[in-house]
Amino acid sequence: MAVMGFAVTTYALPLLAQTMSWRPLIYNLLVPREVFEATVAFQAVVLAAHIVYTNAPALQAPSRWLARRVLKPIWIFRIPRPVELWALGLLGIGATWVSRIMFGDAVEFGNVGGKFLQALVPFIVAPFFIPLRRYFFDRDIVDPPGTIPMLSGYFTLVLVTALFFNARVIFAVCIFTVLLSILMMAAMGRVRFSRRAKVMIAVGVLVALPIAGVAQDLATAMQAGRLLRGQATPAEIAMETVRAFGDKARLEAMRRDEASMTMESGFSGISEIYLESEFFQRLTYTKYTDLTMAASLRLSDFQQSQIRRDAYEGIISILPTPIINALGLSVDKANRGFSTGDVYANLAFNEDLGGYRTGSSITNTIDVLSVFWPLVVFVICILMFIEFDSYSLMHDGRLLISAISFVLLYEIVARGLVYESFRSLVESASRAYIQAIFVYTILTLGIRLALAPLAGLQGQRNLGHG
Questions:
Q1: DSSP label of 361
Q2: SS3 helix, strand, coil % of the chain, rounded to 5?
Q3: What element of type H or E holds 74?
Q4: How remote is the C-alpha of 228 from its chain's centroid?
Q5: Model pTM?
Q6: Residue 345: is it exposed, middle or buried by C-beta count within 10 angstroms (0-12/13-18/19+)?
Q7: In terms of Cα–Cα distance, which of 411, 362, 420 is closest to 387?
Q8: Residue 264: what pLDDT?
């Protein structure tokens, strides 16, 4: 899925979307030749690593060992009950509200409490796993009555949360996770569509076309609310988003303004528009590779050394602060309130840091590692394949796919092998895996302990009725 995700996010989806929009693939790209040369080279390394991994039993052995000896004993492959998944989802919703209101930008500066809450946010998608459990675990599992209506209501809550905090990615992740899961299960032959189901899907696609337009309008309206970040309360941002959503002329004007941004007014003036659908644009990184590649080509040798220095400090900042202090490393997380995209904008176009512009792991990795990047990327890919494979386990002749793989599916597909920087690749292959396992285990154990008295009481009632 990670390899497929790389292909989709870098050129497959852009090619499909631009063809459907009757636009050339190089539409609004500053340095298209350099972008696709780097992307194809990166893809070649990823594919080489995948071929070697899938044909080398010795490389696959660590993932099987992790799954059976480490993850299985801590219940990663236990089928979660619906009430546990509901609890995980509500924790994710609550963490979003609390972290956005109480911590705000402090989450980015090493605040431990804020970082922990941030680690809970991906579990927002957990309740949508309830009707998919039978496919992931290849078992006959009956869902509780009323599951689908409850999930519809829950999605409304997710949408309200995204609207209130101007976070388009929240509801987009939920939609993409469910769709990717269904596609994955269909490819594995676990989801089979009857003739009636196929007709219903075709009708659903036709019905979804106008809904897709609504989603695009909502994404554009959220840009209006985003302009008030740091200046208004979440409620005011939400109201501004609602007002913009109801003003079709304003939405069209916003799209025209962004599309007409010149490519000569600096990094912040370059339009990030690439695909016509903003919804699909959430899944592509081609334009960000283009922006950072254009900036990189303007850098002097000294500025390139600053790019490497920033990557070094970023990788060190992955470590917990006590370890950084114990090792005597001169990296202060409080001074890293910016993204890799900001660094390129600052060095190439003298833009201020702190805008959290999206960077590109493709550009940044090549800049940081120079001629050694293929070897390092190859090793990182092998490590990631081992980690991702450990989320599944062969048991009694059946392939069990854990619930945590569902929670992380969007991250694996959309950001597994391509994201914001070289640092993000290192983090994905190291801390992110351990953190995901730790948080999921702690949460599910805590929820089970908290619900144990209720389960006991329900058991006593059942005995009484018996």
A1: H
A2: 75, 0, 25
A3: none
A4: 24
A5: 0.80
A6: buried
A7: 411
A8: 42
Token pair 């800049």 is at which residue? 367
108 alpha-carbon distance from chain centroid: 17
φ, ψ (nearest 5 deg) of residue 464: -60, -40
* pLDDT given at position 263: 43
The rounded average pLDDT for each run of 10 residues, N- to C-terminus, in the chain (466 residues) is 80 79 79 90 93 92 92 89 91 84 52 69 91 88 88 89 74 84 84 70 60 62 62 66 72 63 45 66 80 89 90 84 78 75 84 76 92 93 91 86 88 80 87 85 86 56 38
Q: How far apart are CA 424 and CA 184, in angstroms?
A: 25
Read out DSSP for 184-244?
HHHHTTSS---HHHHHHHHHHHHHHHHHHHHHHHHHHHHHHHHTTTTTS-HHHHHHHHHHH
Residue at 404: amino acid letter:
I
Question: 108-112: which pairs have CB atoms within 8 A and are 24 or more residues apart?
Answer: 108/337, 109/333, 109/334, 109/336, 109/337, 110/317, 110/321, 110/333, 110/334
Torsion over CA of 224, 225, 231 and 232, rounded to 10 degrees?
A: 140
Give the span between the Cα atoms of 428 and 234, in whole angstroms. 31
C-alpha distances (whole Å) from 390 to each of 60, 139, 316, 417, 432 are 9, 20, 26, 17, 14
Residue matched to tokens 């690439």? 274
In this structure, which amino acid lies at residue 156? T
Residues 6+ apart with CB under 8 A from 92: 120, 121, 122, 123, 124, 125, 126
Nearest to 215 by CA among 159, 253, 161: 159
Nearest CA to 343 among 439, 440, 267?
Answer: 267
In the chain, the N- to C-terminal Cα span, in Å, equals: 48
For residue 325, which amino acid is it?
N
Helix (H) or strand (E) holding 393: strand 392-395
Query: How many C-beta atoms surround the C-beta of residue 349 within 10 A?
Result: 16
pLDDT of residue 279: 64
The amino acid at residue 278 is: E
DSSP 8-state secondary structure symbol assigned to residue 394: E
User: Which residue from 455, 451, 428 is spatially nearest to 90, judged by alpha carbons?
Assistant: 451
350 near 266, Cβ under 8 Å?
Answer: yes
Pair of tokens at residue 50: 């995948």
Both tokens assigned to 390: 């450990």
Q: Is the dihedral of CA 336, 342, 344, 348 positive or negative?
A: negative
